[in-house]
User: Fold these one by one.
Assistant:
Number 1:
Amino acid sequence: MNEFLENTKKNIHLRTAHSELVGYWSVEFGGRMNKVFHIWKYDNFAHRTQVRKALAKDKEWQEQYLIPNLALIDIQESEITYLVPWCKLEKPPKEGIYELATFQMKPGGPALWGDSFKRAVHAHINRGYTKLVGVFHAEYGVLNRVHVLWWNESADSRAAGRHQSHEDPRVVAAVRESVNFLESQQNMLLIPMSFSPLK
């Protein structure tokens, strides 16, 4: 893991020369050990295809980063997601920690559960203990999956805010409505890398 991250830090500029890196994190809690999570931005599918073709021809990228790291990667997963219409990507006010909450919703899509999910997210925002970075809906990968990326000043401030929200009747009511459409949830605590645009 350390070797992978050192090589990534050293050569990430070769990758960001082709498309925008939104954020790059290591997973601290809630997921597999020695796992990284990163988000890349594309204008559309044609843009992503163009970037992939350019990377395939970039010998410096392949020789200095891709080939040396292949032996260090155990498993890799990729999803295509988009920001939900009622959310824009926000940048936190300062460095902190991130939480990725992944919700597996019931089949039916946002037409079925979108409004109640939005109310649950906004109920947490209105508490003020956490900052919403983005809400992403899966287009390719497991369908009816929504990722909510939160920023907190620290893991302890996040824990304190969560405990307070559990006693807020407005949050409880919004969450109680939303869970009627929920099948499962996983939360991961993410630590941003030094080269991550989101820190």
Number 2:
Amino acid sequence: MKFYASVAASVISPKGNETVERIEKRVLDSNPVMEAFGNACTLRNNNSSRFGKYIQLQLDRFHHLSSASIQTFLLEKTRVAYQAPNERNFHIFYQITKGATAEERLEWNLPEGAHYRWLPNSERNLDEDCFEVTRDAMFHLGIDRSTQNNIFKVRYKAWSPQSCCCCLECLFSVGFLQK
């Protein structure tokens, strides 16, 4: 992507260069978000990708970068419900429990100091636990604070496999039940 961005920037107008830089920034800003929701600490690696990512760069008829799309797929859905000994769940869960402000905890129904059965090894502190990096990246991608708050809200409700969908609210409903 850096190659296409630099080649495209060298042959297009300044306004086109801004477009290329904006596209590149959005694709790069997607990484912290995808890593928070799709990476976990495993026995082999503190930031092991549990998802696949396919980035497609679109070029216009002059071979200039015009847009990009990212498609992801979760490789390890079982990690939400089970982690091997000494492993951790997806980073986003730890980021929220460690990085939420007192006001956010209250709004998101996330009690201070609570222990959650699907957050093993939460006493470990990793660089990947930085919630503010994820929130800033989400904001740069156009996900405003209000929408972020709705994503991170914990709602305790009845759950069944038939009603489960791949959204953080459902993951929290299932996985953040206290021990």
Number 3:
Amino acid sequence: MEGKTEEEVQRYAEVFKERYTELNDYDRIIKNIEKGESKISRKDEIMKAIAKKMDRYKNPWLELKIQYGQNKGKLYNEECDRFLLCMVHKLGYGNWEELKSAFRMSPLFRFDWFVKSRTTQELARRCDTLIRLVEKENQECDERDRQARKDKKNMTPTKRPSSSSPAMDSPMQTPSKRGRRDGSAPSGKRRRR
């Protein structure tokens, strides 16, 4: 909080927790606090999801792939979406003015008037769409990892075939079944020596 030290805020929070019921609209105030806390936790979840996506790539600014599914959209291209996610990762979720400025200053979008003319609300909406796609992809990736670990854990060593199978273990096969030494099938003609 601006103008207050951390100790002052901490003392106020302690007194507030003890005496908030003395306030007239304490129900409304508590709901606003809970709403604010849920927004903060959601923002943290979003930043963790984006960071998890970025960690899968050596250079996400160039290599990042987004699994659009069926809702790719026609207005934004993959390069724009990649830049948007990387900048949100760098600037933080909710810094829409800085994001808009980054698009305008980037040489990648020097002649892309569509992107440069987007409002902060439009960029925020596109970012929310991309975040939902990233969260879905992260969830699918986690599920695949869990399944792979489960399969690896349940995998038992394979047994060698038993010697009761005569076709597999018989070293003496007839020449017609064995074929030639070079691996080609017999032609039926005898070779001359």
Number 4:
Amino acid sequence: MSKRDYKNTSVQEPPLDYSFRSIHVIQDLISEEPRVGLRPLKHSKSGKPLTQSLWLNNNVLNDLKDFTQVASQILEHPENLAWIDLSFNDLTSIDPILTTFFNLSVLYLHGNSIQSLGEVNKLAVLPRLRSLTLHGNPIEEEKGYRQYVLCTLPRITTFDFSGVTKADRTTAEVWKRMNIKPKKARIKDAL
């Protein structure tokens, strides 16, 4: 990758936008035309877009099978993805494939069908994740939803389009002490 390509692969670039395309499976991205925005995308010498943002919102995806392979076919530098919008799809879980994108800082998953609050644990390995949305999923109804997410992902600065305050962090820590047993205690209880 040339310095010029890396420099031009930026979040400031328009997204590669496949929103509202009735996409059922990730492989459809290869044959589907992305939406054209107000600003044109820059492309590498190979013709692939130089962007760090991929929008797949408002489709009918229920899994992310082959996501990495397809991302490599449609983006010049998929490893630089910083923003993935998967909102308003039919996802029932957080696919572990998302945790392989270590530059991911914005992840929109609102308006899906994610059932288990424990799915959030998978995202703890993402070192740059700062903005996450999960509202509009069944997990939002679970008691302690916001506190659980903030305890699990302490680097988040925006959650469900709301800034995370010091008071939020304090409340989450108190909630954690009251609701999550330390690992040693769990082992002791099991004996």
